[in-house]
């Protein structure tokens, strides 16, 4: 078992696929342990094998249907003792003013998430505005994903609750029943849940206007603008600030595309030697093209004490270890057990 295949869910899926292979070959489905089935697959399955029937088995389709229904979170019916589509799991926010909107409301002058008239910017995804409170909420939840890779927050109002999930494979967005009722129609949760396949307003744009929920044509640019820091440009340093200082020697760990060299150059700092530790070939190529004076010294793990002594003296050390395994937007993050453990190598 390869380390990257040690995930239990992956093993179970692999075993089911191998058992289906045995059925296609006319063999018994093999009810032994996981490792027995996997060992059989290693020795028996080859790239040139052909199967009579390549259709998806019925039991797999039934599993997929159960998963689809659970991801759409339609919640069953009230007769089964479960909350049905007409019952809110989370009631509308007490400050939600959208129910009082007049028919002639101008969406761009009102917050699409809560109905406030204190608009500070446009909603990045839909025609409508955002107040400062909802702007922060949209920023915090835009790329938040649960363990099932589905957002637990409504894409419109950023509130948790009973969500209708888009059936588009590449979409992870959900829409709460409160927003569906207020912005599409009072019976929207029931009518949309009854559809065999539902694609949300972000994925399926038709000529028919879907109530008040309309995708913004420039939504990609608006999302980028939402996450662009609103800072004033840094004034250039005085030309003579570093005039009388000697050139410095720099060691940059996890260097990337030599951003450190770029910043030092912009600040007017004279650099005698810039030593870079980077393993990504594309990043190294960009650094070499933009900053020919950068010297690559190999991976951080290979920087032994003796090698560091050879590189000395060093005036400035730059380091920022990979953070993908700590980021909340990475559903497969492994914390400090992933690439982030390299920070301890630096320390």
Automatic annotation (TrEMBL):
Major enzyme class: transferase
InterPro entries in the record: ADD, C5-Methyltransferase, C5_DNA_meth_AS, C5_MeTfrase, DNMT3_ADD_GATA1-like, DNMT3_ADD_PHD, SAM-dependent_MTases_sf, Znf_FYVE_PHD
Recorded GO CC terms: nucleus
Domain of life: Eukaryota
Cross-referenced Pfam families: ADD_DNMT3, DNA_methylase, DNMT3_ADD_GATA1-like
Major subcellular site: nucleus
Protein name: DNA (cytosine-5-)-methyltransferase
Residues in PHD-type domain copies: 99-232
NAD as UniProt keyword: no
Keyword Repressor recorded: yes
Region (Disordered): 71-99
Keywords of the record: Metal-binding, Methyltransferase, Nucleus, Repressor, S-adenosyl-L-methionine, Transferase, Zinc, Zinc-finger
Protein location: Nucleus
Matches recorded under SUPFAM superfamilies: FYVE/PHD zinc finger, S-adenosyl-L-methionine-dependent methyltransferases
EC assignment: 2.1.1.37
Gene label: Dnmt3b_1
UniProt cross-references to PROSITE patterns, sorted A to Z: ADD, C5_MTASE_1
Database matches in Gene3D superfamilies: Vaccinia Virus protein VP39, Zinc/RING finger domain, C3HC4 (zinc finger)
GO MF assignments: DNA (cytosine-5-)-methyltransferase activity; zinc ion binding
One BP annotation, GO: methylation
């Amino acid at each position: 078992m390869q380390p990257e295949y040690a995930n239990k869910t992956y093993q179970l899926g692999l075993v089911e696929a191998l058992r289906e292979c045995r059925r296609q070959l006319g063999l018994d489905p093999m009810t032994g342990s996981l490792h027995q089935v996997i060992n059989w697959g290693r020795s028996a399955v080859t790239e040139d094998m052909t199967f009579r029937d390549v259709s998806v088995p019925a039991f797999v389709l039934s599993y997929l249907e159960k998963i689809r229904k659970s991801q759409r979170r339609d919640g069953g019916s009230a007769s089964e003792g479960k909350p049905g589509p007409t019952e809110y799991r989370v009631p509308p926010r007490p400050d939600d003013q959208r129910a009082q909107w007049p028919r002639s409301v101008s969406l761009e002058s009102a917050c699409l998430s809560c109905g406030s008239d204190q608009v500070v910017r446009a909603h990045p995804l839909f025609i409508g505005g955002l107040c400062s409170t909802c702007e922060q909420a949209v920023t915090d939840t835009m790329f938040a994903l649960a363990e099932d890779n589905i957002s637990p927050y409504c894409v419109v109002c950023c509130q948790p609750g009973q969500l209708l999930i888009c059936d588009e494979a590449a979409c992870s967005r959900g829409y709460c029943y409160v927003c569906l009722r207020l912005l599409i129609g009072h019976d929207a949760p029931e009518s949309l849940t009854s559809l065999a396949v539902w694609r949300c307003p972000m994925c399926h744009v038709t000529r028919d206007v879907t109530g008040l929920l309309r995708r913004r044509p420039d939504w990609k640019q608006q999302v980028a603008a939402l996450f662009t820091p609103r800072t004033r440009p840094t004034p250039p340093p005085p030309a003579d600030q570093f005039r009388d200082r000697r050139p410095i020697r720099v060691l940059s760990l996890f260097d990337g595309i030599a951003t450190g060299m770029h910043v030092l150059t912009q600040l007017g700092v004279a650099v005698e030697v810039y030593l870079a530790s980077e393993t990504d070939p594309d990043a190294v190529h960009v650094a070499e093209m933009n900053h020919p004076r950068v010297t690559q010294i190999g991976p951080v793990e290979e920087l032994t004490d003796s090698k560091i002594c050879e590189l000395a003296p060093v005036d400035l050390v730059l380091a920022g270890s990979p953070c993908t395994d700590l980021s909340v937007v990475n559903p497969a993050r492994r914390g400090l057990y992933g690439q982030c453990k390299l920070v301890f190598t630096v320390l």
